[in-house]
Design a protein that fits this description.
Blueprint (H helix, E strand, L loop, with lengths): L2 E4 L3 E4 L4 E5 L12 H9 L7 E7 L7 E7 L5 E6 L9 H12 L10
Antiparallel strand pairs: 1-2, 3-4, 4-5, 5-6
Length: about 110
C-alpha cells in the first residue's frame, strides 16, 4: 500500500491524495504560440523506471500540493516536500491585530437634518 508522509498531517494513505502529474515537465509560457510545444507538454510523457518526481494534492486533509519523489519500480517514497513555499502560520500578534481591527467601532455620524 502506498502511504505518503504529508508535512502538515503526517503519514496518510494514498487514497487521501489526488495525483497531479509529472513534476519534471516544464509548462510552456501561456503566450507560447508553438503548437508542438503544447502537444509535447500535454501528451508526451516519459515512463521512467526508478526515481520520479510527481505532484500530489492532499485533498482529504490540508489541501496542500506536494512534490513526491517516488520509485516507480516499487512505489517507495524517497522524499515529500511542499510544491511551493510552506504555508504561513499566523502568529498570536497577527491574529490579535486582525481581531482588534474588526472590533473597532466606527464613528457615529450626527444627522444634520
Amino acid at each position: 500500500m502506498l502511504r505518503i508522509e504529508c508535512p502538515c498531517c503526517g503519514l496518510r494513505d494514498h487514497d487521501e491524495f489526488r495525483y497531479g502529474g509529472d513534476a519534471s515537465v516544464t509548462r510552456p509560457g501561456h503566450d507560447d504560440p508553438d503548437p508542438e510545444a503544447w502537444y509535447r507538454y500535454v501528451y508526451v510523457r516519459a515512463n521512467p523506471a526508478g526515481l520520479h518526481r510527481e505532484f500530489w494534492q492532499h485533498v482529504i486533509g490540508c489541501r496542500q500540493w506536494l512534490m513526491v519523489e517516488r520509485d516507480t519500480r516499487n512505489h517507495a517514497i524517497a522524499s515529500v516536500a511542499f510544491a511551493r513555499k510552506a504555508p504561513a502560520k499566523k502568529s498570536f500578534t497577527q491574529t490579535s491585530l486582525a481581531q482588534k481591527s474588526l472590533t473597532k467601532k466606527s464613528p457615529v455620524r450626527k444627522s444634520t437634518a
